[in-house]
Amino acid sequence: MEKGKSIFGILSLILSGLTLVAIIYLIADFRRSNNVQDYSTQKNLAGELSDNNLYTAAIDQYNRILADPRLDAEISANIHYLIGKIYYENLQDYANAAAHYVMARSLNPKGSFYNEAGKNLIASLEKMGRVVDAKRELDQEANLNPPKPEMGGTLVAKIGAEPVYMSDIDDAIRNLPPEMQKKFLGAEGKKEMLQQYIAVELMYKAAVREGLDRDASIVKQKEQLEKQLVVEKYATSKILPQINIDTADVRNFYLANRKEKYGDKSYDDVKTQVIMDYQQVKSQRAFADYIAKLAAVEKVQIFDENSK
């Protein structure tokens, strides 16, 4: 009997021990869950403070998260990036911004913010007058992002590790109006265009590092330009092919407008102008007809009373 009690006592002790272990585990798990939730709460609070221009208070909140010794590297890297962003974009404190960007990139080289932090780090160093350090960072970025292989063109320059080919210069010249293209014909002209090309690229890269490509007005202009180019391409492929020049119709157009538009001059004297005017009218009609069809498909409604 005593033996049975002894065994029962041992089993009870073991079960009590196991229960205690389970409780400790649950408590630890509960604390871990609370810690994650606390980080989320503090990050949200810091974000709210930053949105309300309370940047120092936002940084204090982020630093409270960083003070936790159990914080993993990935979360720590993200917090350093967010602090660096406040220092860079809102406080213009480029020394602190650079320090936090370095820590963020070191703690998590695979973070989604890595490239953005790199650009801002270089821009911060440049703003601090640390040109040599900025150049070193640029060189490191170039090593991480090797240049595109040569496509058979003639290499005429390099901007860091990025090659510039003669085809790039030729394209730049071709994009100019015809009269301006003449200025850059020949060896000397191409040398001048190369200098201009490099100057534009250098300024563009510096502007991008400062985030000007994300400026609201620039983004809006880019959207409008893209829309315009797409519409022009669409009109060229869909509408212009429908415009046919009918010789008899051109002559009738001239007769209908002979006195009012052409001062009663002979057809041969104003033939070129007549054809241009005819093409314009035909294009406008074709465009209007095509828009009307698209509007019917899209069920467009115009409320004139609200547009006054």
Q: Can you describe this structure?
A:
The chain is elongated and about 90 Å long. Strands 1-2 form a two-stranded antiparallel sheet. It has 308 residues and is an all-alpha fold. A hairpin with a 2-residue loop joins strand 1 (155-159) and strand 2. The protein has twelve helices and two strands; from the N terminus they run H-H-H-H-H-H-E-E-H-H-H-H-H-H. The protein folds into three domains: 2-144, Tetratricopeptide repeat domain (Serine Threonine Protein Phosphatase 5, Tetratricopeptide repeat), CATH 1.25.40.10; 155-214; 245-306, no CATH class. The chain starts with a helix and ends in a 10-residue tail after the last helix.
Major beta sheet, strand line-up: 1-2
- Approximately how much beta-strand content do the residues carry? under 5%
Largest sheet: 2 strands, antiparallel
Q: Spans of 5+ residues with little confidence (pLDDT < 50)?
A: 1-37
Radius of gyration: 35 Å
Structure classification: mainly alpha
| Number of DSSP E strands | 2
CATH superfamily of the largest domain: Tetratricopeptide repeat domain
Give the N-terminus to C-terminus distance in angstroms.
Answer: 102 Å
Second CATH tier, the architecture of the largest domain? Alpha Horseshoe
